[in-house]
Amino acid sequence: MLKEQQVIRALTRLSGFRKFLFIGALPCFLSLFIINSSLSSKISRPYLSTENCLQCHGQEGPLPSALKIDEKSFYSSAHASLDCTDCHAITFSKQDRIPHEKNIPPPDCLSSCHQEQPEVPGRAGPISYKDSVHGRAYYDRGEKEVARCWDCHGKHNILPQNHPESTVNKVNIPRTCSVCHENMAVVIKYHIHREAPYQEYRQSVHGRALFSLGATTFAAVCTDCHGVHNIQGVGEPHLMAKLPTTCGRCHEQIYEKYKESIHGKMALKGDPSSPLCVDCHGEHKIIPPREAGSSTYFQNIPATCATCHARPEIMEKYGIPADRISTFIESLHGIALGYGVKGAATCVSCHGAHDILPPSDPRSSVHPANVASTCSQNGCHPGMPETVARTKIHVGPSSRYSKTIYYLEKFLIVLVIITVVITIIWFIPGFIRRGLVIFRKRR
Amino acid sequence: MDKSPYIDDDEVFIRMNLTERIQHFILIITFFTLIITGLPLFFYEFKFFRWFIPSGRIFLIRGLIHRAAAVLMIGNLIWHLLYTAFHPRGRENFKEMLPRSKDFRDAFEQFMYNVGITRFLYRRGIGRKFFDRHPYWLFEKPPLYGRYNFIEKFEYWSLGWGSFIMIFTGFFMWNVELSLRLFPLWVHDIFIIIHGYEAILAFLAIIIWHMYNVHFNPENFPMSRVWLNGKITGRELRLLHPLEYQKIAEKRRLKAETKQNSLGKNCA
Fold first, then answer.
1. Fewer Cβ atoms within 10 A, N terminus or C terminus of chain B?
2. Which domain holds residue A408?
3. A221 belongs to a structural domain
4. Which of B50, B185, B217 is opposite residue A434, by nearest beta carbon?
5. Best residue of A327, A339, A411, A416 to probe chain B, by most B CBs closer than 10 Å
6. How near does any CA of chain B get to the CA of A310, in Å?
7. Minimal Cβ distance to B60: which of A341, A427, A434
8. Is A359 exposed, middle or buried (0-12, 13-18, 19+ CB in 10 A)?
9. Which of A73-77, A226-230, A436-440 shows the lowest per-residue confidence on average (mean pLDDT)?
10. Which helix (H) or strand (E) segment is B91 a member of?
């Protein structure tokens, strides 16, 4: 403030001619100073306009086609107003003489310009690339093949995100990611656990919504679950793609139910064995439950639940018997389901799907007070008496917990075997004798 | 059994009358329908039944057929009970069907006759003194049977007992809500298990015992035709049911004698 006032005062004291000289000389000095400073530094960056570069690098230039760029696409790109040298730090072997040196460093988008905050709050800005699975591979491990800015956004033809032809437009993102993630060489080299995520995604509800239904504004694409610039790899704690809160951004009501359920409560508390959305529904290939391939198809539900509930090492932790699935499969409900009866009760028919609660919770559908009404829902067993709640449900002959039935079945098996054995012992001599009689008669 | 002068070998006797044949036929149909539609539930892990019942809709139709066959079988049973109670022939059959101590002896004697170990020992000269004094233990001839032998009696009563169990348990399986109103759930589970195993027992009993008796018999080897035409010849009667043969012969002898007596009286 003070300095400015002094300069203004000094200028007002000068006469007209002197004023002209001073103001005219100022840019000259300044430009000299800039040139001087640029000469003194090692990288010389003389001003080269895009047109200058395109004399060689344009479509009609003398260079091999790998070094040419398409002027049209460049001038229609988001960076049309930039000069080549803004991104490409070229150096010259001889002072100010073209051609420039062969090896020039790759552009550094992050340090030069793109440090802006994300437009959508909660989304990661470009700068968080450095901490992503791709960025760490590049910066920490020096992997040269890893995805960099231009692998997703394009090189000279960068378009704004909302442009329909942009590689990072919502519609094109799955295909953009698939360029590397369906390349088996990449998948094998970096031990990526999904081999064909794009093919799986295309069949999923999200992929169908995007490609077939045209829900281009809200259908979930890769970046919606995995993150934009801050994509993390499998094995990271609190992986965004697995968190129920990620699914809950769109599936709000289901998330509200899940949050209250025993699975949701435990999972959100940080229990690693509690199922997340993806554990039941699958990851890339989420298919609606009415289709036979889905893990939530009525016939596949016991198998889906069995991934945890048939494993003693997991069930021990929570004090749940590990025979819940096997006793269901041998029950009449389970047998009917095995033969594909659509109306047959599955796990979720009684326990609920997203709102599963332990039987000790009075809100649970399998709480003793609610069992009778649960049985009579959907017209399955109308008029089921309240007494049904008095006994244990998951008991079957294969389970030792159900004493009477278990031993009764053993007894019956022994009875059948004894009867058959006695019958056979009794019959064999008779068969032989009668056979001999027939044989002799024939002769 | 010696041939009686009162019964000709070619004479035809009615072993099963039309009513009995119809009842038997309905029983065959319903029994095998129930077995075929019920076994997939018992052997639910077998791939074969997955092929047999390819979809859930067919599974539900299977249930309907099973229940329809059950109702028909119950109707047949009621008919049979009424027939047994009110028809003179039914009553006679029932009396013949009652188990006696002779049946247990018959089973033992038949087995020993089939094995023939004592005859073998006798021929070898082992225990000759004992066998000379007690020729019964040689089992030279198979036991003599009446109208129904012990195998037929066993089948009849096991079928009756089995039907009772199957109808009782099946009724409560059909009406789960009623069953759970009356019994706790574990009793209902027992019903389910007993229904399955009793079915297996009945199936084996029919397959082994009955097939053995009516097909694998030297007198009627490929198949006895009694269940089709109900007829049995005097010769078959003499070989398979000697006591029945004797009974008829005795009856005819008495009849002939009284006739002769009355004739003689008239002449005098």
1. C
2. 403-443
3. yes
4. B217
5. A339
6. 18
7. A341
8. middle
9. A436-440
10. helix B88-97
Same domain, A147 and A224: yes
Residues of A in contact with B115 (CB under 8 A): 429
**Per-residue confidence band for A39, with pLDDT thresholds at 50, 70 and 90:** very low
CA neighbor of A176 nearest in space, from A158, A193, A153, A199:
A153
**In this prediction, what percent of chain A has a pLDDT beyond 70?**
86
CB contact under 8 A, A423 and B114: no
Q: What pTM, to 2 d.p., does this model score?
A: 0.76
Residues of chain B with C-beta less than 8 angstroms from the C-beta of A419: 201, 204-205
Nearest by CB to residue B111, choosing from A404, A415, A429, is A429
For chain B, what are the domain ranges? 1-16+230-268, 101-144
- For residue B208 the two structure tokens come to 């082994």
Q: A318 with A398, same domain?
A: yes
| DSSP state letters, A303-357 | HHHHHHHT-HHHHHHHT--TTHHHHHHTSHHHHHHHTT-TTS--HHHHH-SSS--
Q: Are residues A145 and A192 in the same domain?
A: yes
Domain assignment present for A210 = yes
Measured between CA atoms, how close is B59 to chain A, in angstroms? Answer: 7
Count: domains in chain A:
5
Return phi, psi of residue A252, to 5°.
-65, -50
Contacts of B217 in chain A (CB under 8 A): 434
Q: What confidence score (pLDDT) does residue A3 get?
A: 55
Predicted confidence at residue A44, as pLDDT, reads 47
Asked if A240 contacts A228 with a C-beta cutoff of 8 angstroms, the reply is no
**A56 domain-assigned:** yes
pLDDT digits (tens, 9 = 90+) for A41-78: 444 456 677 888 888 888 887 888 888 888 888 888 88
ipTM of the complex in this document: 0.79
A331 and A384, same domain (yes or no): yes
pLDDT digits (tens, 9 = 90+) for A268-307: 888 888 999 999 998 898 999 999 889 999 999 999 999 9
Q: Is position A283 within any domain? A: no
Distances (CA, A) of A3 to A6, A13, A27, B135: 5, 15, 20, 146
Nearest to B193 among A342, A397, A424 (CB): A397
